[in-house]
C-alpha cells in the first residue's frame, strides 16, 4: 500500500495508467487510474475519463486536486515514486479520503 495526501474524497478502482506527458494521453481509457508526476491545465480533459488520480507531487491547491474535486473523482497526491512503483495496467484502488493507494 502507498500513502499520500488526501486531495479529493471517495474510492475508485481501475487499471493504473502511467502517463509521463501529453504524448501518453492517447493511452488513457475510461475507468483508468491516472498515475503521473503532476498535472497542469493541458491534462484537464483526462479528468473527464479517468476513475481516479494519483500524483507524485502536489497538495490541496494543486491543479490535480482542484480538478479532481470539481469532477468528483478520488485523488491522492504526494505519493512518492508512484510512477515507478505502480505498474501500468495493474489493478489499483485509490482512497481519496484516507490518502491510500492499493495495487496488485
TrEMBL record:
State the organism named in the record: Kribbella italica
**SUPFAM superfamilies per the UniProt record, alphabetical:** Phosphohistidine domain
One Pfam family from the record = PEP-utilizers
Q: Which UniProt keywords apply?
A: Kinase, Pyruvate, Transferase
Matching entries from InterPro entries are given as: PEP-util_enz_mobile_dom, PEP_Utilizing_Enz, Phosphohistidine_dom_sf
GO terms assigned for molecular function: kinase activity
Ranges of residues in domain PEP-utilising enzyme mobile: 29-99
The annotated region (Disordered) lies at: 1-21
Lineage, top-rank taxon, reads: Bacteria
Name-wise, this protein is Phosphoenolpyruvate synthase/pyruvate phosphate dikinase
